[in-house]
Amino acid sequence: MESQRRRPRVIAHVDMDAFYVSAERLDRPQWRQRPLIVGHDGPRSVVLSASYDLRALGVHSSQPVAQAKRLAPHAVVAEPRHARYQELSAGIMATLRQVTPLVEQVSVDEAYLDLSGALRGRGTPEELAARIREGIRSAVGLPASVGLAPNKFLAKMASGEAKPDGVFSIPPNRVREFLDPLPIAELFGVGEATARSLRLAGYSTAGQLAAAHPEDVAKVLGQGAMKLALLARGVDDRPVVTEREEKSLGAEHTFSTDVRDLATLERTLLWLAHRVAERARAADRLGEVVALKIRWEDFTTHSRQRRLDRPSDAAAELAAAASSLLHALPQPLPPVRLIGVRLDSLTPAGAGLQLSLDPTQDARRDAEETMDRINARFAGALSPASLLGSARPRRRIERGDESGTAAHETPGNSPGAQGRG
Ligand SMILES: [Mg+2]
After folding, report:
1. So what CATH class is 19-82?
2. Is 134 a catalytic residue?
3. Choice among 110, 246, 278, 368 that is catalytic
4. Which residues surround ligand 1, an ion (CB under 5 A)?
5. How many angstroms separate the alpha carbon of residue 411 from the centre of ligand 1?
6. How far is the CA of 18 from the centre of ligand 1 (A)?
7. 249-409: which CATH number, 3.40.50.2000, 3.30.1490.100, 3.40.1000.10, 3.40.50.1000?
8. Is-contact 92 145, C-beta < 8 A?
9. How do residues 28-84 score in pLDDT, each as one tens digit?
10. Ligand 1 centre and the CA of 16: distance in Å?
């Protein structure tokens, strides 16, 4: 039996509000209520960022500072501190990578996120956008705006609408409604000269451009016509490109006292497999190789791996493979200090396109996605039934670091319910 579904993508464009200005005001409370320009105060330098009150006076970035000062003689001009901005930027991007590994940083204060996978089980795109904004605010203390849409082009337009300090969403069924009245000059990539030619030819809105025959538009624009006609229709298939693709996903657990009991080790593996599978689903990745990592009390560390019959993101399959690797080790085992599961040889799960030949795998995956949903909703109230046999332990979970390895140090000796950091 074969089933195929195509879901629209959910792309977020996250953009900090007047980033340099916000950063200066964060560090210098005395400037919080003052009109502020960030830029070197020299004869040839330009404005890097201006506070919103000054924008109303015509001050804008890339304007000569001298001209900005004439428009706003009362403004404070702050010398840029790029090292500080980079530091804040790193904090912002790390926060975004906790939501999904599919983050494309486009500048110091801007990134695209493909939320299509991360959204499974985590509420609406708007709820996730709200959490992203809260996350950035609590990590670095700065306001961000988020645009949500089915592609990058529309998401960027949406974040423009969201500013300042807001969320704006263009769901698939409202793309036309958003684009049709839009003046063509506001379409991405349309410069003043192009806009003028298009207006002369009778196209003044994106809607008119979308309705036109591409050949007619080509008479005005030549080669660029097709791309622009597609944008006017809201079509943009560019993927979110991460700087480095994660090659593997892992989770590990250090016991507070060494363990030799196989049942405890298996329960821990199941728990870790769920963590890894959840992250794989969030990243829209399947993995083909499962690796077991085990460290004895004397700190010697061993790794064993096994190829699955087919790429998977199902915890049950990961746990079964890890468990069989555990049982294949010479028994009885020496006391175990740390145990870990990795999923390697990752491939894209299909960016919204699912092709399955196995209904039982589908059912299991659906069940685990439901659990993602419940876990997200109750922030760790539930965990796989087989993990609840022991007393509910205390623990803390961190999302994996950027190398793809998650190190979980927990206060208790047994793993348990999920909590989100
Ligand atoms: Mg910005």
Report:
1. alpha beta
2. no
3. 110
4. 15-16, 19, 109
5. 40
6. 6
7. 3.30.1490.100
8. no
9. 999 999 999 999 998 878 899 999 999 999 999 889 999 999 999 999 999 999 889
10. 4
